[in-house]
Amino acid sequence: MTHLPVCQTLLLELHNGVLHVTLNRPESRNAMSLQMVAELRALLASVREDQAIRAMVIGGAGGHFCAGGDIKDMANARAQGPDGFRELNRAFGALLQEVQHAPQVVITVLQGAVLGGGLGLACVSDVALADHQAQFGLPETSLGVLPAQIAPFVVQRIGLTQARRLALTAARFDGTQARRIGLVHFVEHDAQALAERLDEVLAHVLCCAPGANATTKKLLLASAGQPTDALLDEAAQWFSDAVSGSEGVEGTMAFVQKRKPGWAP
User: Fold this and answer.
1) What is the distance between the terminal CA atoms of the chain, rounded to a whole angstrom?
2) Edge-to-edge strand list for the sheet holding 127-131
3) Count of alpha carbons within 13 angstroms of residue 184, beta-carbon side
4) DSSP per residue, 168-204
5) Confidence class of residue 34 from pLDDT cuts 50, 70 and 90?
6) What backbone phi and psi angles, to 5 degrees, belong to 107?
7) Mapped to the 3 state alphabet, what secondary structure does 104-146 carry?
8) Spatial separation of the C-alpha atoms in residues 265 and 249, rounded to whole Å
9) How far is CA 15 from the centre of its chain?
10) DSSP states of 37-93 as a string?
C-alpha cells in the first residue's frame, strides 16, 4: 500500500484505483509554484511502483486548471541570479518528463485558465478533457521570456506547425479549438457532462491491465521520440538568459504593473 505524501498545494483522493489530484492554489488560479512542482514530483515518485493505482486524474480547484508559473517564484529566483532562473525552469521540465513517463494513465480535466505550464501539463497527459470555455495559451513571449521547458512537449503533442503559431503569437484559444488541433480529446459544455465523460474514460482505462498499459505507454512514447535531457538543459539556460535580459525584465515588470510592455503597440 502506497503512503501518499503530505501536500500543502495539492488535494489527494484515492478511490477504486484512481488517484484524483487537485491543484489547490485557487487564489492564484493554481499557478505552479516551486512547492507545487516539488509536491507533484514527490507524489509521482511515491506511486510509480504501485500497480494498484491504475490512473491519475489531475484537475484544478476554484474553476481553473493552472495559470502557468508563479511570478513570485520568479522574483525570488532573480535574487539568486542566472542559476536561480535556470534551476527554477528546469525543475518544471523534470516534472513534465515525470508525468509523461508515469506508468499510470494520466487524465487532465481542463477548466478556466490552462496557460503556460498548465498547457504543458495538458500536453503530457494521456487523455485530456476540456470545458468548451477553457482558455488555453502560451503567453511567455508576450512577457519577454520563452516557453522553454514546455515547447518540446507542445510540439510533440500538436505538431510543429500549430506550435509555431501558438508560441509566436501568444494567442488565446478555447476548448473547441484545442480539440481541433489535437491538444485535447474531449470537449464538454458543462461540469456535469465533464464529470460523466471522465467516468466513461476511467471505465475504459480500468478494463485494461495495468502492467500492459504501462508497457504500452512506454512503447508508444519510445515510438514518438522524446524531448531529451540535453535539450531541456539548454532550454533552461536560454530561459535564464531571456528572463535576466532587457526584454524579460520589461515584460515581467509590465505584467506586475498591469501595463503593456514597451514592444507592444
Assistant:
1) 57
2) 10-15, 18-23, 55-60, 105-110, 127-131, 186-188
3) 30
4) HH---B-HHHHHHTTS-SEEESSHHHHHHHHHHHHHH
5) very high
6) -120, 130
7) CEEEEEECCEEECHHHHHHHCCCEEEEECCCEEECCHHHHCCC
8) 18
9) 23
10) HHHHHHHHHHHTT-TT--EEEEEEGGG-SB--B-HHHHHHHHHH-HHHHHHHHHHHH
- pLDDT for the residue numbered 1: 60
**SS3 state at 185:** coil
User: What are 76-93's pLDDT values in tens digits?
Assistant: 777 777 788 899 899 999
Cell of 137: 495559451
Q: Which contiguous run of DSSP H or E holds residue 22?
A: strand 18-23
Cα–Cα distance between 149 and 116 in angstroms, integer? Answer: 10
State the pLDDT at residue 226: 82
Question: Hey, what's the cell of 216?
Answer: 504500452
Which cell numbers hold the place of 124?
A: 503530457
**C-alpha cell read off for 31:** 499557478
CATH classification of 1-190+211-265 is 3.30.360.10, yes or no? no
Q: Which residues contact 4 (CB under 8 A, 6 or more apart)?
A: 12, 14, 19, 43, 46, 47
Domain extent listing, the chain: 1-190+211-265
**Among residues 136, 19, 44, 51, which one has the least CA distance to residue 94?**
44
- Contact call for residues 22 and 60 (beta carbons, < 8 A): yes
Could you tell me if 18 and 54 are in contact, meaning their C-beta atoms sit under 8 angstroms apart? yes
- pLDDT for position 134: 98
- The rounded percent of the chain whose pLDDT value lies above 90 is 83
Taking residue 245's Cβ as centre, other Cβ atoms within 10 Å add up to 13
Tens-digit pLDDT profile for residues 138-190? 999 999 999 999 999 999 999 999 999 999 999 999 999 999 999 999 999 99
Q: In whole angstroms, how large is the CA radius of gyration of the chain?
A: 18
